[in-house]
Every structure is written in C-alpha cells, then in structure tokens.
Amino acid sequence: MTQKEKGKLYLVPAPLDFGCEAQAPLQDALPFGTLQTAAGITHWICENAKSARAYLKRIDAVAPLAAPLQAQNIQELPREVHKKGDHAGQFDARPLLAAALEGHDVGLLSEAGMPAVADPGSSVARAAHDLGLAVVPLTGPVSLLLALAASGLNGQNFAFVGYLPQDAGERQARIRELEALALKSGQTQLFIETPYRNAALLQALTQTLQHNTRLAVARGLTLANAHVRSETVKSWRAAKPQPTTDERLPAVFAIGR
After folding, report:
1. CB neighbourhood size of 219 (10 A)
2. How far apart are CA 186 and CA 180, in angstroms?
3. 7: Cβ–Cβ under 8 A, 6 or more apart, which residues?
4. CA geometry: angle at 80 spanning 76 and 82, to 5°?
5. Does 4 fall in a domain?
6. How far apart are the C-alpha atoms of 206 and 131, rounded to whole Å?
7. Are residues 165 and 67 in the same domain?
8. Backbone angle region of 38, left / alpha / beta, with phi > 0 → left and psi within -120 to 50 → alpha
9. Number of domains the chain is built from
10. Are residue 189 and residue 161 in the same domain, yes or no?
11. Within this chain, do residues 124 and 153 fall inside the same structural domain, yes or no?
12. Gap between the Cα atoms of 215 and 218, Å rounded
C-alpha cells in the first residue's frame, strides 16, 4: 500500500480593502494565477469564517471554485491567537492541518494582505514545516512593503514593530524610543494602528517626533483613493489645515531619516 501524498499549505493573500467602503476589482489587486490556485482549494484556515466566505465569493466571480461555497471546509484560528499573537510558539496549530495530512491542500487566509505578516498565521506555517508539509506563499499585496517602497525611507534596513501602546504616555515613550533607533541606525521603523485610532496616532507622532524626522503615512494602498505622504515632521506641523486620516482606510506609518 503506497503512502498517501500530503497536501500543501498555501498562504493566500487577500486584497487590502477589508472594512473599506469601496472594494477594488479583485483581478486588479491579485494575479490571476493566485486566484486560480485559491479557487482550487477546498480546505481553509482563517481568522473569521464570515470574512473568508465573502472573499471566496469574490474569487468565484473571477475563477470558479472547485466546490460550492457551502461545501468549503473552513476552520477559524482561536480568538486568543488574534489577541495575543502566535509568534512565541505556544499555540500548537498542527491539529488544524489534519486535512493536509490526508492529502488535501489547505489555504491560510488573513483578513487583508499576506497571512502571517502583521497578522496571525505564523503558528500554522510553523506547524506545516513540523509536519513535513510544503509551505507555498502566493503572490499578492503586502501593505508594509508597498508603504516602505513609496515612503522614500531606507528600504535596506527596516523593522516592523506592530502596534504602538494605546496609553498616551506609553505611546509617547515608545515613539521616542523608535525615533532614537531610527535616527541612530538609519533603520526605518514601520507600524500600524486600527483605522479608527489612526487620527490619534498621527497627532501623537506630529507632536512627539523631532522636526527633522521624516514621517510617512500610506493610506488605502491599492485602492482608488490611495495616498502616500512622506515629509519632515516640521512640514507635517506646518500644513494647513492640519492633516487627518480617513477612519475607514487602513494605514501604515513609517519614520526614519
């Protein structure tokens, strides 16, 4: 009896318009090859099953699904993985990959962008390697790299530091810490925030950073109303009216010299 061939884990990127009022045409945001591969997968791991089904419905309109939406096997990552992250090796995702051991390809989905980059999912990729499964990242938008490329900041030495503290005092201290690192080493510092907190973060940045530090904000990347602004903090402060962020648009922030 021959051993059953294992399936693969595909990291399937999603468009960056999650939660936005307008959606970009799917074929403009992702290569057709990525959409074709995703359409052939029937087993999924995701953050939210409802969002996953909505994305699969969009894929089906471009590349017909191999199985009806109702027949797709969709598993959600535990909520604590969303809240606490899954980068420390504490969450065992191997049970989620049982279908791959039975020969089915499994897709890993994020709400937006590339799974496991600024989103949960690294534990699933790690588990796949531990189980001897091939891990295949598909081509699609990664907001952090798009923002970095458009910022004019150092693209050869950079770090993504996730979310900054919500407490005003702790956030100010963290901003100063990251600025000192950026100015001393030349390493660009990238971070994000929940869209409805973007305005508060932008205000904290313009009030806290030194006037010669360069601040870049990339909003709504890949959308029709995308906008990237990269100037010294002195220029940000001098702008009239004061700059704001659209609370519906996801944004990536970067600081450097």
Report:
1. 21
2. 10
3. 43, 99, 100, 101, 102, 103, 104, 105, 106, 133
4. 65
5. no
6. 47
7. no
8. alpha
9. 2
10. yes
11. no
12. 10
Distance CA(250)–CA(257), nearest Å, equals 24
**What does the alpha-carbon distance between residue 108 and residue 208 come to, in Å, rounded to a whole number?**
38
210-253 pLDDT, tens digit each:
999 999 999 999 998 899 999 999 999 998 766 666 777 899 99
Dig out the tokens for 52 from the structure: 């996953």
Token digits for 188? 């660009």
CATH no. for residue 208? 3.30.950.10
Cβ proximity of 117 and 109 under 8 Å: no
* Owner of token pair 């601040």: 215
In a domain, 183, yes or no: yes
Instruction: Give tens-digit pLDDT for 119-134.
Output: 889 999 999 999 999 9
- How is the beta sheet containing 214-219 ordered, strand by strand? 158-163, 188-192, 251-256, 214-219, 227-232
- For residue 78 the two structure tokens come to 């535990």
